[in-house]
Amino acid sequence: MRIGRLALAAAALLLLTTASVPAGTPLSQTERHGLSSDAFEPRGAAPRPVVQRPSHEPPFGAFVGSWDRYIPQIGRYAQWLGNANLQVGHTYLAGNGWADVEGEPVVLGLWSQWRLADPSRMLVLGVPMLVPNEADVPDGEVARLLGQGARGEFDQHFLRLARRLVALGGADTVLTLGWEMNGVTYTHRCKPDPTAWKAYWRRIVSVMRSVPGQRFRFDFAPNRGLDAIPWTKCYPGDDVVDIIGMDNYDQPAGATFDDYVREPYGLQDQVEFAAKRGKPVSYPEWGLFRNGDNPQFVQRMVEWIRTHDTSYQTVTDYCPHGFWQCGQNPRSSARFKQLMTGSKGTPDGTQPTPPAPTPQITPQITPPPTPAAPASPTAPPSPTATAPAAASPSGAATATAAATGSPSASAPAPASASASASAEPSPGSRPARR
């Protein structure tokens, strides 16, 4: 008993010590192995789940911009990689107001058409849980909003999004709902009230799964490591999560890939947590950051992805993170191109979509008022979406938008991308980096 008390005291001391460690901070060898994924127990106390798989090529892609005009960039990126098969299109909904979260029909329609053009393709959509999502909202207000969401006050917005996706051909979209919830960047963060956050996630999933014809998959995608809160404290339950993702950037300065694997709540913890639950992992965002042009990170990350049960991966491709649109990373760019050139993607084409579990929540959907929900006062005027001729069949986007009702206020267009771009896109078009 005395030994047990000492062990508990040591574990408590370690928890207090690491609670203030910033995301991605490398810990000592003892600390790395002192924590398991979902309980503070010494590793080795129970058999570790098998997570390694034979080498394979998961579906892959790159985030190159959110607005519909960025869709042709996917083809150019594939050409740069020797006509590799980029199977994943990754985009985000802005979070300036609820109209953004409901989805701009023209944009959703064009991305869905890109997906439907090839059965092996996958559309990944980042969905904010609260608005405004990048406005430094205080913790107390975040907690209040999470409580409102858990009580169903925002149901109609996610119902509209689900109906639009199904109507426009995006019924099998992968949704990174509330991405990086364990950090501090977004209003939809978990730390102010983890209990309400989990209840709210469950409610959103139940609402969206209630739409006939949907085959959505929900990706729980925290930041790597111990950020503002251990991401296991935000996990909403196996019945409402299909994929366990992780955003992995090369930070902090001086850290190694082995640090990222071994740190508490790092890559090893992610794959073990997923393996225990029989779920695949994903890497919706990854790339360079604090350690500059680092081809070793690129090599190790691609190897990690290829040797684990990875559902998909998308690199964040603009400066300072990327390879194609960022000239400041020539060595990493060359390594990435060497590793991925000519890749055919997943050999068997499409990824199996598991049937959605029966929701445990029966939300009471309050019919929305006739006018569309107004965008946040800080949102800029809605731009006119002009799709490239090559990206949209004639008239198709207009017809599908009309079929789903009047378009809501759309997200602000991000900055123009080019091969030499060095500025990040606007906050409304993709998540800000820490």
From TrEMBL:
Region (Disordered): 26-57, 339-434
Claim: Signal is one of the keywords in the record: yes
Gene Ontology molecular-function annotations: hydrolase activity
Keyword Transport: no
Low complexity biased stretches: 384-434
UniProt keywords, alphabetically: Glycosidase, Hydrolase, Signal
Signal sequence range: 1-23
Protein name: Glycoside hydrolase family 26 protein
Source species: Kitasatospora aburaviensis
Lineage, highest ranks first: Bacteria, Bacillati, Actinomycetota, Actinomycetes, Kitasatosporales
